[in-house]
């Protein structure tokens, strides 16, 4: 179960941010923003290789005492960050990948909405409900 989900644009501007506990939102924003440096390092290390067959899933970016931060980058350089409680040992890597795939699908659906203005933060209630369902594992 994820405790925080963030979507960050290609210019590192926040597009969407959601936490299960609103009291810890500022702490999670700090963790997500600090993970962007790790994402940039991984992306730049991947560009040095000869092949451009880049894996979208970046894996665990870093681990703290209380949380683990995972990253995912789309082909258009949109970054997804999921923060997971580190006490949850039952959560496997393929489940994290599945959460990212579902989140990417929801993001693609919201961007394809004709009323969405590209580059603007996402403020759709249905998107928020769907992301909360992905975070809690009820999808």
Primary descriptors:
five-stranded antiparallel beta sheet; 24% strand; single chain; 139 residues; 3 helices; alpha+beta
Q: What this model shows, in words?
A:
By secondary structure, the chain is of the alpha+beta class. A five-stranded antiparallel sheet has the order 2-1-5-4-3, with helices on both faces. Helix 2 packs antiparallel against helix 3. The longest helix has 23 residues. The model has no long low-confidence stretch (mean pLDDT 90).
In short:
It contains three helices and five strands.
Task: Describe the SSE topology.
Layout: E1 2-8, E2 14-19, H1 25-47, E3 57-63, E4 67-73, E5 79-85, H2 93-111, H3 125-136
Antiparallel strand pairs: 1-2, 1-5, 3-4, 4-5
């Amino acid at each position: 179960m994820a405790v925080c989900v963030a979507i960050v644009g290609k210019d590192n501007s926040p597009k969407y941010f959601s936490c299960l506990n609103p009291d810890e939102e500022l702490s999670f924003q700090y963790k997500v923003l600090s993970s962007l440096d790790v994402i940039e390092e991984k992306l730049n290390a991947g560009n040095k290789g000869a092949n451009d067959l880049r894996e979208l899933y970046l894996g665990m970016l870093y681990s703290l005492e209380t949380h683990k931060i995972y990253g995912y980058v789309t082909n258009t350089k949109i970054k997804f960050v999921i923060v997971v409680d580190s006490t949850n040992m039952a959560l496997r890597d393929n489940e994290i990948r599945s959460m990212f795939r579902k989140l990417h699908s929801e993001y693609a659906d919201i961007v394809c909405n004709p009323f969405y203005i590209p580059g603007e933060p996402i403020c759709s209630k249905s998107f928020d409900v769907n992301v909360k369902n992905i975070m809690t594992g009820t999808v």
